[in-house]
Amino acid sequence: MAEGKADILQGTLDLMVLKTLDAMGPLHGYGIARRIEQLSEEALLVNQGTIYLCLVRLVQKRWIKAEWGTSENNRKARFYSISKSGRKQLIAETENWERVSGAIGRLLQIASR
Amino acid sequence: MLTWLKAMAARTVAFFSVRRLDCDLEQEMESHLAMLTEDNIRRGMTPAEARREARMRLGGLESTKERHREARGLPFFDTLLQDLRYTVRTLRRDTGFATFAILIVGLGIGASSTIFSVVNALVLRPLPFRDSGRLVWISTTADGGVGEWRIQVNHFLDLRRQNKSFSDLAGYNAYYGTGDHKLTGDGEPERLSGVPVTQNFFPFLGIQPVLGRSFSAEECKWNGPGAVLLSNRLWKRRFASDTGIVGRKLILNDAPVTVVGVLPESFDFGTVFDPGSRIDLYFPFPLSEETNRWGNTLAVIARLNPGATVESARAEFGILGKRLMQEYPQRNDLRPRLDSLDQHVSGRLRPALFVLSLAVGVVMLIVCANLANLLMARTAARQKEMAIRAALGAGRGRLIRQMLTESMVLSGCGAVLGLILAMAGTRVVAHLDTFSIPLLESVRIDGYALGFTLSVAFLTGLIFGLAPALQVPAAAVHASLKDSSRGSSQGKRHAWIRSTLVIAEIAFACVLLVSAGLLIRSFLRVLDVNLGFHPERAAALRVDPGRGYGTQAKRNAYYGEVLRRVSSVRGIEAAGLADVLPLGGDRSWGVQGKGQTYKRGQFPEAFVRIVSNGYLQAIGIPLRAGRDFTERDTPSSEPVILINETLARTLWPGQNPIGQIVEQDNGRRVVGVVSDVRHRALEQVSGCEMYLPIRQTDDYSSVDLVVRTTLPPSALASAVRAELKSIEPDLPANEFRTLQQLVDKAVSPRRFVVILLSGFSVFALILASLGIYAVISYSVAQRTQELGIRMALGASARDLQARIVLHTLGLAGMGMVLGISASWLLSLMLSRALGDLLFGVTPTDPATFLGMAVTLAAVAAIAGYLPARRASRIDPMMALRAD
Question: Which DSSP letter does residue B135 get?
């Protein structure tokens, strides 16, 4: 179910949120969700509500900041932006991800031969 | 790590601001929903379709909220709060049960925390001296290793100089008496107790006077300038905490003595070295040839060097002792005996404390068994509730957690009650100042006791909550829901567990009852001991002659006058004088009959009492042969002596001792034989004793007037005092001490243990009977229909009653068999460790075992009979129709 998927991908989702905020600047929850869906072709977010679980975790770790603001069509929304420590974490996570995914990729290539 | 800490902090904040954060999330999700809907419309959906699709994409608001809370807050505590709220609700509905449970946990925890505090003060906490773990108590063995004597001054000096094991030795003169010092001058005259100590005594123990200083070398010389240190208590009480006290002169025993300092409040000599007595003054004790001549006077404490142990020091002192004895044959014998100071202070009480700790442990187990039983009955009644909750999706773990929360809440409330009780209990114990148990005053609830209480509460909650919690249905939701109360099949397993619990309770209670029984019987035996004197209606009062009575003739005239005047008071049957009262003081001299020779070290030793005519009658020591002293036994008449039967047997076995001469003061003629008196302790048989007439000797340091009265002694106190005041205007105001008080003090440690243990076993008995009662009532209630059918088929009420009572007795019987075998084994195993706790009874005393078994069986029968009677009143028709 969605929960199981979110569990496995929790770290990945964190990474994607950080990357999105880093690339796009401040965004509200809906914006982040839409962006991730677009990029991942809806493979990662079955349930958009899940994004808020991820966001609150990141806020609590002080990797991102949240601020109330007004959306493009004049709605009250919370805008999230990446913090300094969040950037550091993003770099570290990215490296880690590349190492792991590279390793898995190589492994899968070997296995498929 | 830092990130984790930050996150934890944020989570804690979030935990406490649920409402605000929920509101934020709601708003956020609302605009999320709106934006998603708008996008959907833009993509060409109808508004209704767009909203529906958006809701599906976003997911349920409530479930997201729930998960959001878990993600940001402290889910563990959330659940806990929830469980707590639920627990409080259920317990409120069942106040009777809750009150009862909290009460028994509270009593149990109160008892165990109090006992723990006593053990903590006496055994665990270090003595209140600097680095007290390295302190060693040194004495010299006597009577072939049984007794212990003090050390002679010159031996002390040589040991201090020659040993390698200790960094220093200090000591005090153990031969001081209660009320030895008469304080006169400003205010009411008063008798105070004082201890002479060596110069280094206070620095050695690491005690700093709060005012002034310790003794100087000059003050510790023979006939040096009179100096005294005051106890904090005396300073506060008598001198109103006067900070200018140092340097003032007090009139003690009619001579001026300078106050050189005041000791800190934390230092209490009595509580460590002389339990049950209060020391007000400290004097310098000169280590000189004069004090050396006084014999074995010094109680010695030594501080181990780094690297040295009690064993190594023991070995060294064994050799040193032999060498000093050879070198100085004129000195008293020296066979050093070394114990750690802890061991000396509380060693004798350790077996008793061990027994008490075991007893509270058993009490706690009974409490747990009892509560487990009650909770199981409750759980059984709540099976359906559980099943419904399980059906609604609660996991088994979640249900067990809920049950454990309930038991934890009960034990937590119990712990609060227990703590209050323990505080009261420790206060009571700390004020038992007539009990001669060391360190009792320092018994209090401290951090350790608090920690102990919390752990006990936690363990208790866990233990008594676990059995019922595991009863929670696993997967048998269906079966539980179906299982109507009609079936008596409510689980044979549960009935079995509950019976086992009751049997265990009875067995434990049995162990406690038997041990309490053994100790009570020992106590009664001790009280029954023939003391050799009659303490009832006898009282004592210090009447030492003042400095004005400088010569023996003057003193003898004074004694004559005291006895004459006091005897004239109405209600006084007899009056006499003595330097030491029974059960106090152990001055002894070597003794031999004229013409007899003993090898060195093999002299019979006899306790010495200096007494006047009338003393034997006043204190109630029977005269076996010959005559008592009279007023005519004076310095000018023939020197005489009274001896006890043991000494008579020792010196002249098989002969008539009357008229024989004892080698004492150039020969004293034995004029009478008196019966043996237990001078050391009630439990110890008397040794040799001899009585010297007070008018024929100067060798005493205090004088007690002993009176035997027809009325209670306190009623005569003022009349006696009035008579004495006419002779001695400065008579201190201290009250009579009754002889019974002396005896009570001597048995107080034993009484302490007996009272506590009896209390515990009564508590255990009540709990066990309640356990039986609960189980039988429950089974009767469960079997109402079965019983109804039986009655309808012709069973008489009497039959049913008999069946139920028999069932009860069956349970009790099993418990008792277990309990009695356990106590049998225990008392055999422990009898050596318990040593002198038992007195006059064997560890397997059949009378005690039988008596306790009968008591237990009777209580069990009553506990079973009550529900049985209720069962026999069941109306068969009602029973069959019910439910």
Answer: E
